[in-house]
Amino acid sequence: MDEVKGCYVFIDTGSQPTIAAHYSYEKPIYRFLYGQSYLQRADAFPLDPLNLSFQSYNKPYETISKDGFGVLADATPDNWGKRLTNALHRRTPLNQLEWLLASQGNSVGCIVGSLSKSHIKNNSNIIQYEELETFIQITELIEKKRDPFEMKLEQLELNKLLYNGASMGGARPKTLVMYKNKEWIAKFNKSDDLFDTCKVEYASLNMARDMGLNTCNAELTECAGRPILLVERFDRNCPERKKHYISANSLLNIQKIRIDDPKMSYMSIAKVCSQICFDAISNQKELYKRMVLNVMISNTDDHLKNHGFLMYDMKKQHYALSPLFDVLPHGMPSSFPNEHALVLGNDGRFGSYDNLISRSNAFGLNLDQARACIKDVRDVLENREKYLLDAGLKPTEIRQLEPYFFLDILKN
């Protein structure tokens, strides 16, 4: 099969997918051009309001980034999804167009790639909850770098199981699943995890919710003797078939990750809130509390792809921070706070009280308001043992988690 050099970009939100743009690749340049028919629609919206606006509608956008255009990369598989895609296709996609086509519209958001300008592939065959046990067996083979075809399943069944997980972002094992007549993401533990991540993330989401943060609906179940965290998709299960999503990484247009890049900060995300959110003030406050929570629970995996924006009102084209996801302690336990993926304040990526309040004005907060946010987070975390017990963790497991929690350093 020859390398794909051009495809069409569809918006799949209503009863009929809408063709929006043409996406092409001529090494080393990716090009993106809105279609005239799309621009003339009353419901047309820029896929990225900051980097792919309608201002240059008569000429293509260009980039030499190996990831292509960020908002389109958001709709492609990430680490885990790429592992499943490679296991399924036997041929690694050669460029970002091929990765977009491989996701078949199951990735986050409403963007779908197609080789046809008239239709998209309809891949609505989401696996059922009862099929998770077989998928778990497949993931165990893949984690051991073995061939999933060892399962000796029918080709169609294996394709279905792999496709459902192949569209997912992130590095951890997960897949799409139909549960209670809705689309959910099923997340699994890994054999080398330091603790039961499914149970801890479930507890973390419940604590975040009780802090007043916007979280995904989540349920903790068990399959094949293993805990499963089910997270309801926030970009599905809505009046529109799918909602539009953009990661903070894409909106900030990060071409190359550098820890000294000033864009790599919570303050930069707060600025994006002011640029695209309908209610910037409440979103900036929400972001600030999320930052405080990440520091207090040692969630140092708080990179820009773990923050995003959802067009929650597709008719009015109103954006807000997406519900919180991937929130749990990360890395090795330590006697002092580890550095975060993003800059927190004037003292860089170090999680201290002084650093957290040093740039509170960038979130639209004065010092008293910032301190109140910190107190809201800390008050709930003081009762973390209850949440962890409710998630099914044993007292010995909870004691092992204590080094991840940093509440004392934030008391003023």
From TrEMBL:
Domain called HipA-like C-terminal: residue spans: 167-380
Keyword Kinase in record: yes
Sequence intervals crossing the membrane: none
InterPro entries for this protein: HipA-like_C, HipA_Ser/Thr_kinase
The keyword rRNA-binding belongs to this UniProt entry's keyword annotation: no
GO MF terms, alphabetically ordered: protein serine/threonine kinase activity
Pfam families xrefs: HipA_C
Cellular component terms per the entry's GO annotation: cytosol
Origin: domain of life: Bacteria
Record keywords: Kinase, Transferase
Similarity comment text for this entry: Belongs to the HipA Ser/Thr kinase family.
PANTHER family in UniProt: SERINE/THREONINE-PROTEIN KINASE TOXIN HIPA, TOXIN YJJJ
Protein's recorded name: HipA domain-containing protein
Biological source species: Acinetobacter guillouiae (Acinetobacter genomosp. 11)
